[in-house]
Design goal:
- The complex is a heterotrimer of chains A (266), B (305) and C (397).
- Chain A has a single domain, classed as MetI-like fold (Orthogonal Bundle).
- Helices cover 75% and strands 0% of the residues of chain A.
- In chain A, helix 2 packs across helix 12, helix 8 packs antiparallel against helix 9 and helix 9 packs antiparallel against helix 12.
- The longest helix of chain A is centred in the N-terminal third of the chain and has 34 residues.
- Chain B is mostly helical.
- Chain B has one domain: MetI-like (MetI-like fold, Orthogonal Bundle).
- Helix content of chain B is 77%, strand content 0%.
- Classes of the chains: A mainly alpha (266), B mainly alpha (305), C alpha+beta (397).
- The interface between A and B is large, with 95 and 96 residues.
Chain lengths: 266, 305, 397
């Protein structure tokens, strides 16, 4: 369904629209581009374009024990969140998609609640709860809190994958002698694996980029990268953060491309 | 064999195996609930229980007796009232800016050929996948006193004194608009894509000018998508924390920041909890109103990420 | 358990099917192939369905439905959409749970059994082939579930492929197959594990007309050779008539009539069946004083006179004919009418006429030269003749 020449309006007549759209796109993308370029600056001043180039901010990032530890904590938490949230979300999505349960609306609302509830509330809530059960400043606590925030994204992605999948295939597999679980593993999962992988990537990035809840429940040895960055930004603008930001942007691009590539495989 | 004779031998056996089938149905329901339970349990433990607890806390004053003083404070303390005003001002300004910037972009995306649109779409989605902190940091670098914009303008001789762009209201608006824009563009684009191009062709065929076709056909059809984008942006603005905390320079105190200060700085959990409860109530009320008016789901935006 | 031999194998093939499938004959004459067919033939078992109730929400979809399918029978559930035929099939397969009822296959109750233990082969409307597996692995799937050895799997898949005339296509990907080939793969997959019964949900509806007609005959032949008990769902009455041993006509969650196709066509029991299978003219008649009357004319008929009251006379368009005499003679009933239009249709013509009460009827006849010579023009009065033995009465609604 090509939209080409959809309407009898020439591209020339649309020029103003394209110009406006391009400006908005520039607004969206320019900050990231500027940060990437400035991370290679050689001076402590924030100049653009930089007058001299160096890798000193990357050296400062990778050379600092604090930044490195925070990064390791964030990666650990993100990987564990992904490992926990993906099967949980996939199982929930399957049950929702089966559609035979009553109260599906309420279940949906509950599972996707963390998308709508203000994050600050989840932050003080989990902090308050964790203070009672000793989960503050622990990896377990972080993984649980991040899993709850990543879960809705996995559920939504896998549900939309299941919606575009022909459930008759699982039915036929069951009539051919596979029990429900085995039919899911052999027939359904291979075909919705793209959605599951996308969901897993969402879970990873959601955890890795999470700031507000981590501000409350991480600290000391388990300080996440985002918490450390937030505190650093509150004090002063350290160009090291430009280097870290560039790494995070590259990570986003890699994950987004992975998701797109998997999506195309469909 | 007529229908009559087919039924007769079994008349009175209307509940044949009904119990076994009922038990089987229950087994399946339990199986599906078992699949849901780990996720639901986590959400319940980490979201519902703490929020319920906070609500309970908000009902008691500092001395530990039941009172509405935590809620009465909203109307009595000027600083609270100022926070609410600021919050709604920011939310309206950011939502407005997102509409002004997002509508033309979504319209352009919907009119572009498929390939070009998907490339442009990546430019919208990429910021969506980039950490809010990174994007806020970028705007700090660009907007601060000695930042890019000011140094350029001074170099060009347009201004002699740096403009106050960051650490104030304007900085918060710019930073938050950048973060919220994809939340508006994506659902709007999705709804524009579903508008039947033949409707527009018919409009033009019936004698409407391109501008009239847009105004009378395309725009009204795009309104549901715009509404869902507006609602999600507005609601997210109300509870937003990171950007105003970093770019407001301590001058722009929004609702979420007030909650953080009250609980972390002053350890007044009752007051902080009351703020949180009301914020949640306002959020849910807005979403509920939206769903009631349009029958749409606000979470739809996430699946297009 | 009785294993059915390759019954009706060659002898009952009608001429048309043999012409359509010339490649089938050598396979069946060759004793080795005959042996091969025997080994793949599923065990045919009878199905006893009784008292099936199904409600969705508060809406009753199937009402106390009972039906017996003989071992080896090809039974078609025919009905309009919403009649409950697909729901019944899904209940048989185990994908929809009835609220009450019993399904016995060879005497064993299966109503509460999970689908994977029912041993029922199923062909879906859209085939539901697994796109991530090739043809071989699709067909081998049920054997793999049953832990059949690799060697035997290969052998049985090979036989199944041969049976559906897809020999050598085992390595093909599913998306490389044509619609007809996919249909055959789905069929092979549904019979390769020798299921007790085979269910088919409008399996031909996605094919174009000529391929559909070809596949109808091929399916019919396959059924004759393998003798598996088959329940087939369709909304296409022609397809049902072509393929079935018996047809159950369903309407609003009930079976209106179940009979052999020729009986259903010649002697429909309800107005719905008469209207759904073939074209029908309905002429209101009244039964009084032991006779049936159309206005002031007594209807001659060979079947029993029904109870007093209003009835509908069902007359197929090809059973009406133009007669010269306005008075009934012998066993022919005559009804006067006025010609509205005559449509020439190549091999036949259709004559639309209006009865005296304003009711429209259709008459169809072949274009024989003697008939063509006497074709009436629009507005002309004609006499419509109906043989007494063609008179079928159904209850007026």
């Amino acid at each position: 369904m090509s939209m080409e020449n959809a309407l009898p309006i020439s591209h020339r007549q649309r020029l103003w629209l394209y110009a406006l759209g391009a400006l908005v796109l520039l607004f969206l993308i320019a900050p990231s581009v500027i940060i990437v370029i400035m991370s290679f600056s050689g001076s402590t001043l924030l100049q653009f374009p930089p007058e001299q180039w160096s890798l000193r901010w990357y050296e400062s990032y990778f050379g600092s024990v604090e930044w490195r530890d925070a990064t390791i904590v964030s990666v650990k938490v993100a990987v564990m969140t992904m490992i926990v949230a993906t099967p949980l979300g996939t199982a929930a999505a399957y049950a929702i998609n089966a559609g035979t349960l009553r109260l599906t609306g309420a279940i949906n609302a509950l599972l996707t609640a963390s998308l709508i509830i203000p994050v600050i509330l989840i932050g003080i809530g989990t902090f308050f709860l964790y203070a009672r059960i000793g989960l503050n400043n622990t990896l377990t606590g972080l993984v649980i809190a991040h899993t709850v925030q990543a879960l809705p994204l996995v559920v939504l992605t896998v549900v939309s994958g299941l919606r575009s999948y022909d459930m008759n295939q699982e039915k036929v597999a069951r009539s051919l002698g596979a029990n429900r679980f085995s039919a899911f593993l052999q027939v359904t999962m291979p075909q919705i694996r793209f959605s599951i992988v996308s969901g897993a990537l969402f879970a990873f990035i959601t955890s890795f980029d999470e700031v507000v809840v981590s501000l409350f429940i991480s600290g000391g040895e388990t300080t996440t990268l985002t918490r450390r960055m937030f505190n650093a930004l509150r004090d002063q603008i350290d160009p090291t953060i430009a280097a870290i930001s560039t790494c995070l942007i590259v990570l986003s691009i890699v994950l987004l491309s992975a998701a797109q590539l998997f999506g195309r495989g469909r | 064999m007529s229908m009559q004779s087919a039924i007769l031998p079994h008349a009175g056996a209307r509940t044949l195996n009904a119990d076994a089938l009922h038990a089987d149905a229950r087994r399946e329901t339990f199986g599906l609930l078992a699949l849901l339970s780990p996720g639901l349990l986590l959400v319940f433990a980490v979201i519902i229980v703490p929020i319920g607890w906070l609500f309970w806390l908000s009902l008691f004053d500092e001395t530990g007796s039941l009172s509405a003083s935590n809620y009465a404070r909203f109307f009595q303390q000027p600083s609270y009232i100022k926070t609410f005003l600021t919050t709604f001002k920011v939310a309206f300004a950011v939502t407005g800016a997102c509409v002004v910037l997002g509508y033309p972009l979504a319209y352009m995306l919907s009119q572009l050929p498929r390939r070009a649109a998907s490339i442009c779409l990546i430019l919208v989605i990429l910021p969506f996948w980039t950490s809010v902190l990174v994007r806020t940091y970028a705007w700090l670098v660009i907007l601060q006193r000695k930042g890019l914009i000011n140094s350029w303008l001074i170099d060009l001789g347009v201004i002699s004194q740096p403009l106050p762009l960051a650490n104030n209201f304007a900085g918060v608006i710019i930073g938050m608009t950048h973060i919220m824009l994809p939340f508006l563009v994506l659902p709007l684009y999705a709804s524009m894509k579903t508008i039947d191009i033949d409707c527009l062709r018919a409009g033009m065929n019936l004698g409407a000018s391109p501008a009239a076709t847009f105004r009378q056909i395309f725009f009204p059809l795009s309104l549901p998508g715009l509404a869902s984008g507006v609602v999600i942006v507005f609601v997210l603005c109300l509870g937003f924390f990171v950007t105003p905390a970093l770019m407001g320079g301590g001058k722009v105190i929004m609702w979420a920041m007030r909650i953080e200060q009250t609980t972390s700085l002053y350890s007044n959990w009752g007051a902080g909890a009351a703020l949180g409860v009301v914020l949640l109530a306002v959020t849910l009320a807005l979403l509920g109103l939206f769903q009631w008016l349009l029958g749409a789901r606000a979470t739809g935006v996430w699946s297009s990420r | 358990m009785q294993r059915f031999s390759v019954r009706n194998c060659v002898t009952t093939n009608c001429r048309g099917s043999v012409q359509a499938l010339p490649q089938l004959r050598p396979a069946m004459n060759d004793p080795e192939s005959r042996e091969m067919l025997l080994s793949i033939a599923p065990t045919a078992l009878p199905i006893g369905i009784s008292g099936i109730e199904k409600r969705f929400g508060g809406v009753s979809v199937l009402r106390d439905l009972s039906l017996d399918v003989a071992a080896g029978e090809f039974l078609t559930l025919l009905g309009p959409s919403g009649s409950g035929k697909t729901t019944l099939l899904m209940i048989l397969a185990g994908f929809v749970r009835a609220n009450a009822g019993s399904i016995k296959v060879g005497g064993e109750e299966i109503i509460a059994m999970p689908p994977h233990r029912r041993n029922i082969g199923m062909v879906f409307q859209n085939y539901a082939l697994f796109p991530h597996m090739n043809v071989f692995h699709n067909i081998a799937f049920p054997l793999k579930q049953r832990r059949v050895s690799t060697a035997e799997t290969a052998e049985r898949v090979e036989k199944a492929l041969d049976l559906v005339q897809l020999k050598g296509l085992g390595e093909r990907r599913v998306d490389q197959l044509s619609g007809g080939q996919r249909q055959r793969v789905a069929l092979a997959r549904a019979i390769v594990f020798e299921p007790r019964i085979v269910l088919m949900d409008e399996p031909l509806s996605a094919l174009d007309k000529s391929l559909r007609e070809h596949m109808q005959i091929e399916l019919r032949n396959l059924h004759r050779r393998l003798g598996m008990t088959t329940v087939y769902v369709t909304h296409d009455q022609r397809e049902a008539i072509t393929m079935s041993d018996r047809i159950a006509v369903m309407n609003a969650g009930c079976i209106e009539q179940i009979d052999r196709p020729e009986v259903l066509y010649a002697a429909p029991k309800t107005r719905f069946v008469a209207g759904f299978i073939g074209d029908s003219n309905f002429i209101p008649v009244e039964s009084r004083n032991g006779s049936v009357w159309y206005e002031d004319r007594k209807i001659r008929m060979t079947s029993a006179v029904p109870a007093a009251g209003c009835h509908l006379m069902v007359v197929r368009p090809e059973k009406l004919r133009l007669v010269a005499d306005a008075q009934p003679a012998g066993s022919v009933n005559v009804i006067p009418a006025t010609v509205g239009d005559v449509i020439y249709q190549g091999d036949s013509f259709a004559c639309y006429a209006t009865l005296r009460d304003g009711r429209q009827v259709t008459l169809r006849d072949y274009c024989r030269s003697d008939v063509l010579a006497r074709l009436p023009g629009p507005g002309e009065p004609v006499n419509l003749g109906i043989d007494a033995e063609d008179v079928v009465l159904v209850a007026a609604d």
